[in-house]
């Protein structure tokens, strides 16, 4: 645990990346697997994660992110996109996955599936999309922790035009909407932010034990 805390103290929201340094395939796969294993409500994972490496597309995304250089200089860009208007078909797909993975007859999982469908059906479209969007942030947190364990820099970013991202990445046709992004790579030696002391609330100010 002390190593995890050391790594979390080491990480920061990198402002300037070294475009000449790339994350290895092995490390990238480790980060992807950590994101895949991330927690989500019911285990539904109502989102997709798009990893952008294509330089032309990244230039377009940079323009839609107000010119932030992380979009083009980082090794990869992870775009988290929530399912828009999650429906019963997503629940059925998840139930089938549980059935196949655990060797349980789908019929035995019908009650669990109906419960999830009822929960989803009782939500308005706005509430449903807010809920699925929140799930992407759980996965983002897992990415940040996993990257820090590998001494790979990562920057969570909300400063972008989601509608433009959706258009550039074709999310509208996939029933997805971009919610948050993470630049992944290696800090540039000229990024002065890496030398700043980490500023967080004290335990006394942050935590309330009842």
UniProtKB/TrEMBL annotation:
Transmembrane segments: none
Signal sequence, renumbered to the chain: none
Cofactor: FMN
Segments forming domain Nitroreductase: 9-186
KW rRNA processing (keyword) present: no
InterPro entries, A to Z: NfsB-like, Nitroreductase, Nitroreductase-like
GO molecular function: oxidoreductase activity
Pfam families: Nitroreductase
Keyword terms: Flavoprotein, FMN, NADP, Oxidoreductase
Family: Belongs to the nitroreductase family.
Protein name: NAD(P)H-dependent oxidoreductase
Species in which this protein is naturally found: Flavobacterium panici
